[in-house]
């Protein structure tokens, strides 16, 4: 079940989306369904299909027949009849009802499956939009982690620059070393500025995706937790995907429509029942009487043959499309599984071996340079290597997250369609 997202509306503007409040992302489907402009056409389609389904459950409207008959023209019989327009004509009142033969069941099945297909198609659009937003938020999270890492390196570079300048002022270090430390600081600050610009750009993409401003994570640990999220596959597997289920429903709807069209050769009779009030009793007519009538079309030329053919093509196309999507998704999942395994192996090695070693080397060189026991160049080179490893680790985290989103796009389903209300 999707949790409702409370969206405050102030002066007609939707409240910003605070990424820190998203938690495990459970609120995203409701948020996307209510706000994404490109899903409004799907909302209309769901409403229209549901209206057609409800209409198919109702009986045809009866018809009311009113007529005035035997209006006299020419010579009267008898010739001395007074007020002929009051005494000759008869008035009839009747009801006519269409009786459908063999058509209500297929029509109801066709519209019910069409409504289900529309809801499932909308659900799939929501699912794809949610995963697109997951990807974008993953980019925001990676950008925040990158900014945080570079900010920490910038602080260390600032501290080292101040230390080297103080040592140079005392004559314990050369001015060249102080300039090198300052140059390293400027390089780090430039990279940090670029990272902040990238974060601002990803926040703009997030705002475009969800049609509301996005506020970054409050803490870098929240951003790291978002990148560490994984998507569980539903028990239904690939066949549980809404788009595949929508194709199944479309196929069943087309088969029912084919049956409905094929039964067009059955004529639907119209039964009439009415009452006649006859004023021409002077001639011996019955003053009060009932009438019963039956009429039916003759399906000689048109009896649904073209509609049946079109419905058959639609059913075959839906079935073929489902089989192709299923086969393609299975092959892509296998390929993605191997790719994820390879990248996660690199990620684990970098996190557990390379980064701890790089940090240890930088700490030891920092202490040695502070005592004057090691050249500054070695420390600067180690810092640059640590910065590269940190940025590589963040990029690997982002890559792994995107790969898992791609797997979810191929195989994850949203189970409920009850929330897809217009």
What would your notes on this structure say?
The structure is a single chain. The chain is α+β, with helices and mostly antiparallel strands. It has a single domain (9-411), classed as Up-down Bundle (Outer membrane efflux proteins (OEP)), CATH 1.20.1600. The chain is built from 9 helices and 8 strands. It has helices at 28-35, 40-56, 84-87, 104-170, 175-210, 220-227, 242-262, 305-371, 376-411; strands spanning 9-10, 13-14, 17-18, 63-69, 90-98, 214-215, 270-278, 288-295. The chain has a 4-stranded antiparallel sheet, with no helix packed on it. A two-stranded antiparallel ribbon has the order 1-2. Helix 4 (104-170) packs antiparallel against helix 9 (376-411). The protein is rod-shaped, with a radius of gyration of 38 Å.
